[in-house]
C-alpha cells in the first residue's frame, strides 16, 4: 500500500478529515456529462495509439490511491492518463504498482463541483498529479466551461489557455478546447482528433461513396 508523504499544515489536515471516496452519485451524470467523458476518452486514446505510446487512458476506473494519513483513498476520475502503465485493460488502477496518473479530467456535476474544484484539486496537487482540468459542458456549475491547474516548482497553479483558446497539455503534448457542449482533443499539429465513432462514420461514408461510383 502506497503511503503518501503529505505536508503537515492546517489546510492539509482539514482536507484529510473531509476526504472521501467517490460515490455512485458522483459518477452518474447527464447526457452532456457522459458524452463529454466519452469524447475526451476516445480522442486521447486515439492519440496514444497513433503515437504507439504506452499510455493507460481510462474513464471512471477505480484508482487505489493509497493511504492518505489514516485513510485509504479510492476514487474514480472521469478521465485519467498514466503515460507509462500500458494500454492493457485493468479492473482497477493501483498507484502503488504504477505510480500516480499524471493527467486527470473531471466533468463537473451538481453533486461533485465543489469537491472537484476544492478538496480534490488540492489533494491531486499534493499526491503528484501534474495536470488537472475540470470541464463543465453548460457552464452551469463553474460559470465557465474549463478551469484547470498544473504542477509548478512552487505549487499547483492555474493553467490558462493559449491564444488559440486551447489548453495545451505539456504532459501529453496535445490540446483541449470546448466546441459546443463537448471538450475536443487536438493533436500536436493542431488537427482535431476524431473519435472512434466519427472515424467509423467517415469510413462508412467513403465506402458508400465508392459503391455509388462503381458501375
Characteristics:
single chain; 6-stranded mixed sheet; tt1808, chain A; alpha+beta; 215 residues; 3-stranded mixed sheet; globular
Can you tell me about this structure?
This protein has 215 residues and is an alpha+beta fold. It has a single domain, classed as tt1808, chain A (Alpha-Beta Complex), CATH 3.90.1570. 33% of the residues lie in helices and 25% in strands. The protein is built from 7 helices and 12 strands. The strands form 3 sheets. Strands 1-4-6-7-8-9 form a 6-stranded mixed sheet. Strands 3-2-5 form a 3-stranded mixed sheet. It has a 3-stranded antiparallel sheet with strand order 10-11-12. It is globular, with a radius of gyration of 18 Å. The termini are far apart. The model has no long low-confidence stretch (mean pLDDT 91).
Amino acid at each position: 500500500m502506497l503511503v503518501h508523504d503529505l505536508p503537515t499544515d492546517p489546510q492539509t489536515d482539514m482536507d484529510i478529515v473531509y476526504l472521501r471516496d467517490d460515490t455512485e452519485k458522483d459518477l452518474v451524470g447527464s447526457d452532456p456529462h457522459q458524452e463529454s467523458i466519452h469524447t475526451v476518452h476516445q480522442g486521447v486514446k486515439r492519440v496514444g495509439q497513433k503515437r504507439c505510446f504506452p499510455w493507460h487512458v481510462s474513464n471512471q476506473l477505480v484508482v487505489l490511491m493509497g493511504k492518505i494519513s489514516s485513510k485509504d483513498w479510492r476514487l474514480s476520475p472521469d478521465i485519467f492518463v498514466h503515460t507509462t502503465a500500458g494500454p492493457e485493460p485493468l479492473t482497477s488502477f493501483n498507484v502503488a504498482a504504477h505510480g500516480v496518473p499524471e493527467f486527470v479530467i473531471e466533468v463537473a456535476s451538481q453533486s461533485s463541483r465543489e469537491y472537484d474544484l476544492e478538496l480534490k484539486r488540492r489533494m491531486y496537487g499534493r499526491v503528484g498529479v501534474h495536470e488537472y482540468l475540470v470541464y463543465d459542458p453548460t457552464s452551469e456549475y463553474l460559470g465557465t466551461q474549463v478551469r484547470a491547474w498544473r504542477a509548478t516548482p512552487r505549487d499547483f497553479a492555474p493553467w490558462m489557455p493559449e491564444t488559440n483558446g486551447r489548453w495545451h497539455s505539456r504532459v501529453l503534448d496535445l490540446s483541449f478546447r470546448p466546441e459546443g457542449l463537448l471538450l475536443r482533443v487536438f493533436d500536436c499539429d493542431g488537427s482535431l482528433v476524431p473519435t472512434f465513432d466519427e472515424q467509423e462514420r467517415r469510413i462508412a461514408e467513403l465506402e458508400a461513396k465508392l459503391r455509388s461510383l462503381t458501375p
